[in-house]
Structure formats: structure tokens, C-alpha cells
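To make this tangible, we now present a fold written out as C-alpha cells:
***
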Amino acid sequence: MSSHEISNTDQSGIGFKRELGLFDSTMIVIGSMIGSGIFIVSADISRTVGSSGLLLLVWLITGVITVIGALSYGELAAMMPKAGGQYVYLRESYNPLIGFLYGWTLFLVIQTGTIAAVAVAFAKFTAVLIPWFSSKNILFSLLGLNIHAGQILAICSIVLLTYINIRGLREAKIVQNIFTIAKTAALFGLILLGLFIGANAQAISANFSNIWQGKWIHLVDGKIGWVESLTGFSIVVAIGVSMVGSLFSSVAWENITFTAGEIKNPKKNIPLSLLFGTSIVIILYFLANVTYLLVLPLAGNPDGKDVMSLGIQFAAEDRVGTAAANLIFGEPAAIIMALLIMVSTFGCNNGLILAGPRVFYTMAKDKLFFKSTGTLNSKSVPAIALISQGTWASLLCLSGTYSQLLDYVVFAVLIFYILTIVGIFILRKKQPNADRPYKAFGYPILPLLYIFLAASIALILLLYKPEYTWPGLIIVLLGIPVYFVWIKLSAENIQK
């Protein structure tokens, strides 16, 4: 047993309660993954790859990477079924510094930035039903920032979900299960309607007559700057660059590992929930894109006057899901999709808000985060960590920088995924006799394939999208001096 290993009980005698079964865990995986991305990002992907075949290939590669990653994490989850998940895997595979850099980036941007972005998406689609919450409705100015009604609603949703989670795991999992079932059923229903009712000959003819002839539309200030025909290596580059959107729509499945201290039979249920959850989501995502291609032409004109002429590439505000629904349902489409995305984003944020504080709790136990976040309340949940996360996410909502920050950390998230999968190989060497109730599926071939694919995408982003990569690296590297200052201060406090 590692000297770092956390027991299920803290110093007050209050411990985590194992209240999450396989179904609950799978709902957290699905719910944390499905937000608003699947309804939006296919527009940008379509502008980058420019063909139906390449659009589906992007989602297929994303799916393969995601499921292999989840199956590989299963070994680590079964081996170390403790609160903190990925943070613990990185700490044990490498050293406390690498674990800290992950936790630092998770708190500063990854978890909180995603919560802020999802909350603002919730508010944005609420404004379709209740225009008062529009981003154009400026309520007041604060420190030079114009605060609009949508930001206030976003913060209120974070506060409400944080409060529900503080009330206890049972309440949080009920919310998670209800909203995940609702949005999964609604997305599946939309796919079925699109496949059997919305499909039209015009879109099918346009999209499937030449499925591999790609064109990369480069936008300048929102207008078409130039169009690049894709051949040879440029196809690989376009696929790699376009995967920013599909990958970020498919992350957060690892959040279930953060809650390992509260899962019944974690050595079995975490790997199974990762397999079931990621597989269901990836299948839904792929079918959703098939639906888009059967209902809407991929190629479009930014000056088009209706959803057909705008196509997937230039769907209004990139809302591809709403454009497809418009052809299925007619005028009520905007309201139907707004309701679906409201349910989707609210449920997504509950899963993210639930999981993240378990990492900060574990870091505090390692004396690498604020001491108060390493305590549980009378309901056996890390309330102070929940409040800390909610406060920072709310400030990011007000700052309006969350979207930019998320762009920055796509690269960092990929790097941490790669490091974690490499950790499987390291731990097999460092701890050959450790209990491994589940072993990574297809080891070593599939984990190596994951590392190769993810590293290739990271390299493409580093070379061709430096604005996405270097700022993210800087955010991670800033954690190095913070780590050594924290260690020094912790040592001084112990001496006192």
C-alpha cells in the first residue's frame, strides 16, 4: 500500500459513503460527457474538413481514442479505488509534482472553466425561452466588466447545484440520474426522428455523392478568407486541428475516477461504468452526426437565407442541432432544442460539480491544497472544496474568460491523458505485484495506439494551432513554482 493512500475516513471520523452503484456511476460518466458540444461543434469541424466522410472520420477517431482511454483507465481505477482518481494515478506513476500540476490545472481551468462554460451555455439557451436572460441585457458594471443577466443565471445555476451537492451524495446522484436519463432519451429521440422523418434527398445527394473531397474554409473575422483543398498530409492536419471540438465534447469521463471513494465495489464498477458510459455517448455522437448529414447539406453559404442554404458549416451561431431540428419540427425547433440543451447542460454541470472537489480533497490530504478542503461535512461530502470550486467557477463566469481558457487547456488535457496512460506501463514495472483486478484491455497494443494517436493530435495542435497550446502549457508550468512554495510553506507550518 502506498504511503500516500487515503483512507475512506478523515480525522473527524466522518468518511465517504459508498452510495454509488454501477448505474449511478454510468450516469455520471454519460452526464459529465454530454453537454452542449454535440449540438454545436460539428459546424466548425465541417468548415475544417469540408466533407461528410471526413466529418464522420473525425468523430470515429475521437470515439476510438475515448473508449481506448477509458478502458485503459479502468486498470488504474481498479488498482487504486480511492478518492482523487486521475490525480492519484499521476502522483503514484511519477511523483507528487506531476500530480499537483494536474490538480492545479484542474482547479484553475479544466474543471472550473468547463463548469463556467457549461453554465453560460445553460443561460444562453434559457434566453431562447426567456429573453430577459439574454447576454444583451446588461444589468450593471463591476470593475470595468459589463455583467449581463445570462451571467447571473449561470452563477445561480452553479450555486444551486453546489448547494444540492453539499446536501449529500444521495441528493446529487438523484439529480444526476434524472437529468442524464432525460437528455440521453431526448438525444436518442432526436436521432431517430432525424433518421426516419427528417432525412431528405437534397441533403443526402449533396453529402454522399463525393464523401472524401475535403476543403478547409479559413475564416478571417468571421468571413471566408480562403479555401484550401485537402490532399495528402493536409488531410491529416485538418483532422487533427478539427478534433479540438470533438475531443472536448468527449472529455470528462475520467470524472468518475474522482469519486472512487464513494462507489460500491469500485474495482469492478469503475471499469464497467467507464466502458458502458463512453461507449453509449460515442455511439450517440456518431449517430447524431449521421443524422445531421441526412437532414442538412454539409456545405453552406455564410450569406444563406435559410437553414438549407447555410448548411452545417454556417448554421446560425453554429447551432447545428437547432438547424436540423428546424427541418424536423418546423418553428417549435428552437424551443425544443433550447429545452434539450438546458436539460443537457444542467445535468452535465451536476456531474462536474459533484466530481471535482474529490480531487481537491485528496490534494489537501497530501498537504498540496488548502487544509480546509480536506474535510468532510456531516453529510460525508467535501463541502469546503465544493464551495471553493463553485466560487472560482462563478468568478470565471463573470470574467468571460472561461471560453478562452478552455481553448488554452485542450492541449494540456491531452498531455495529462497521455501521461496517465503511460503511467500504466510505469506502474506495471514499479509495482509488478500490485493487485490488478482489471487489466487494460488490449495491453500493450491499445494503450500504445492511444498514446500514438493522442500524441499525434497534440503535435499537430502544437505546430498548427499554437494559440491553443502555448498558453495552456504556460498555465501548467506556472504550477511548478507554486508547488515548491506550497511545499516550503507546509514544512514551515509543521515546524511551528
About this structure: The chain has 19 helices and four strands. The two ends are 30 Å apart (CA to CA). Residues 1-7 have pLDDT under 50 and may be disordered. The longest strand covers residues 223-229.
